[in-house]
Amino acid sequence: MSQNNLSKIIIVAKDEWRYWLRSKLAISVMAISLLLTLSSVIVTSINMMELSHARHELQEDAEETFAEQPDRHPHRMVHYGHYAFRTPAPLSILDPGIDAYTGNSIFLEGHRQNSAMFADQKQGTALTQLGSLTPAFIVQTLAPLLLILIGYSSVSRERESQTLTYLLSQGTSGNTLILGKGLALLSVIGLILAPLAVAALIRLHDGENITAVLAFILGYGLYLSVWALLVLLFSSALSKNSESFTALAFVWILLCVVMPRVASTTAATSVPAAGKLETDFAVIAELRKLGDGHNAADPAFDKLKAELLEKYNVDSIDQLPVNYRGIIASAAEAELTHVLNEFAEQRMQTELSQIHVSRQFGWLSPMVAIRSLSMLVVGTSIETHHRFLREAEALRFEFVQALNKVHVEKLSYQDDMNRNKDAAATQKARVGAENWQVLEDFNFEVDKAKQRMQRSLAAFLQLLLWIVLLVVAIRTIGKRLI
Q: In a 10 Å sphere around its CB, with 0-12 CB exposed, 13-18 middle and 19+ buried, how is residue 380 labelled?
């Protein structure tokens, strides 16, 4: 590009800004966009930080409450349970992702795998859900509309006012004119992204990786650039402002409202998932095939009983040096957990397959692409949530089995069997509170930045393809601009 063309592009961009400064609509739209983005960043940051501190305190309180329980029967503590809280990713203040729907807390107890709970969206009313204006939602959904309101007449205005022919006759090419208008729109994008970028960079102090922060900012820059190019394309291709605005409004509805819904519906249809009731009945049916860990006389444990008698060379379970009921509870928990994990993995694989189908619509909608990219880079995607479920389940199994070990080693079989005989027998069937120190610290961390980047690569390619195609289309129109 020659120095002369570059100066012309800058002149066109300055002229566009002069027009916007004279236009009350353009100034109002830019002020609203800045105010919305800035306020959402501040409000969401405060809210997420408060929730993060609250979860940290609740985690400590749950661990202290568990450890401070009085002398009890070990199996009572298995059913008493424990909470696991997930600390949100640093960048989740900008895009909570699916965490707002799945929740960040799980109640862990014996014999069951519970779902995550206390999701923000599930606790709110319909009105509060509509009012959940996170920075990601504003930039993904509202910022394109604001760009349309500012730039829909950028080129078509020149045609309507009869100045386009004059500009072209003065030696300004169509592509130079469009580049100048595009430079002005890019500066508006910079203003919109400034609060988002500053908030993302601040997350570095919370331990976020610089690569993830830069990828997050770049992703949104590419996304808004797609919309700037769409605005230029329709404004250049159509002869009237009204036509340009109508076409861009339709494209916004199609790409930001309709296509994400089509993507989720297609994913649910192409990869059907069993309903909760159907899954629950299937799990119950499988668990019935296992032995009852609360019943030491269950025939399902006859083989285990024979192996124990042979191992310790005794004639009856009363003579075993360990508590037979505790061994049965431990074995039953292991078998039950294996079955529950199989169903949980099937469900997670189905969810992951559905997500992969919906993400393919990023080739058809930049909105779908940026939603996927944002959640993947931030660490609030389905992959991270699944890892949280797996790690929480590992914690649940470890502490339940640790209590079962106490049951096996610290309580005799005779005392255990006679625990309901009288008050003295009940007291004798308890173990000391010092045995409740079986919990390990649960510190869930977001995936490594490298792994998040690898997952988001397809979404970056989708946005880049949109940009390439739009640039080619605009250059073609710019050569024929009249």
A: buried
pLDDT digits (tens, 9 = 90+) for 285-330: 888 888 888 888 888 888 888 988 888 898 888 888 989 999 999 9
Distance CA 30, CA 150 (A): 8
C-alpha span between 191 and 199 (Å, rounded)? 14
Segment 190-195 long-range contacts (CB within 8 Å, at least 24 positions apart) = 191/30, 191/33, 191/34, 192/33, 192/34, 192/37, 192/139, 192/143, 192/146, 192/224, 193/139, 193/217, 193/220, 193/221, 193/224, 195/34, 195/37, 195/38, 195/41, 195/135
Amino acid letter at 233? L
pTM summary value: 0.89
Integer CA distances (angstroms), 372 to 28, 141, 162, 379, in order: 31, 14, 43, 11
The pair of three-digit structure tokens given for residue 337, joined into one six-digit string: 């957990």
Distance CA 255, CA 264 (A): 13
User: 117 forms bridges with which residues in the sheet?
Assistant: 105
Residue length, the chain? 482
Nearest to residue 232, comparing CAs of 222, 247, 254? 247
Q: How far, CA to CA in Å, does 479 sit from each of 163, 175, 221, 482?
A: 17, 7, 27, 9
Buried b (16+ CB within 10 A) or exposed e, 330-354: bbbbebbbeebeebbeebbeebeeb
CA distance 459 to 443: 29
Query: Which distant-in-sequence residues (6+ apart) come within 8 Å of 174 by Cβ?
Result: 168, 236, 477, 478, 479, 480, 481
Provide the percentage of residues in the chain whose pLDDT is more than 70.
96
CA angle 355, 358, 359 (to 5 degrees): 85
